[in-house]
Amino acid sequence: MAAKAPDYQPVERENHSTVRVGDYLYMWGGGQPGLPKVHNNEKKKSMCSVMEVCHLRTGRWEQKPTTGSPPLGVRGYAAAAIGREIFYFGGWCNHGDCYHNSLYSFNVDTFKWKELSPTTSHHGPMMKQLCDMIAIKVNSEDYLVVIGGWASSSNNTPKQPGAQYSGEGLVFSSQRYNEIHFYKLSTGQWISPTVTGDRPPPIHDFTLISINNSSAILFGGSTANGSSNNVYILNFSDTSVNCSKLSNPGESVQWPKERFAHSSVLIHTSSGPNLLVVGGFLWSVTPTTNWIIVFGGKRNFSTIISDPAVIELRYTSNNDWSTSIIPLDQYQEKLQERRREWEASQPVQPEDRRESH
Fold first, then answer.
1. Domain extents for the chain?
2. Can you tell me the distance from the alpha carbon of 175 to that of 244, in angstroms, rounded to the nearest whole number?
3. Which pTM value belongs to this model?
């Protein structure tokens, strides 16, 4: 079930994630046409046993087969990368109230799945979807951090001490959570950290982006009060997390509108890191040019989008931004053009200067 035609494009999908490792994007799962509404069967396993891979240097997609058993939480899962491994947590099973709190790893060299922590109602985070996850490194140890989410409150794991669970504004027995859990890779243990400061409320469909190895920024999401535009800075140790809510300065700054189910990326420029809130993924073509690769999602909560889009953001000399759309049929041409422009703008090094005699 692999595809490698030059004009190949993945099928439309939503509630998926795309993770960058090196010069490749890895896209798995999501709600797709024909995905069986069952816990598991051969067709579902077959559809979930492929990885969509985009080579950033060419803009071309390829569908590649995987080995091992893929996660059952195919929609609304959380994903993060450490080295050559991508980790997948939780998700909705695409039928009924079937949610997961399993943790899987996917190796981008062997294309093999491995279950690290099974779905269970006995320990760990709630079985849920629409949470988010990042990787941190503290005292040379790798951890995964899982925050928030929502799912059914029935037949779920024990509540985390200090966390809040709210069903306000949700139907049936669903609840939002503001749980924060660590997973320590070296021991395979779930940890409940001490939480201090301005803990976000029960929330889902937000974005959580790493700033460095031990801090992150959380923006937006859906809460009991509706869509949010709050910003939180989270600082982690091996046993704790401190949350600081940034104040909205009002009219002096163009603060973003409330939103949920968005995407965010951190762009590093000469003036410091900038958080970009938009759909899709980001790739630095040059230090001043970034391309956002957008794939999938829903339009007007109904139509699933299939056509990829490439949005170019250029950081100008007067600390401003310009944006444009890169046509897919001009991807490689524009990529080479931008790199030539960047090389031409760089000063000639002394050892490269030659005098004519």
1. 280-344
2. 24
3. 0.82
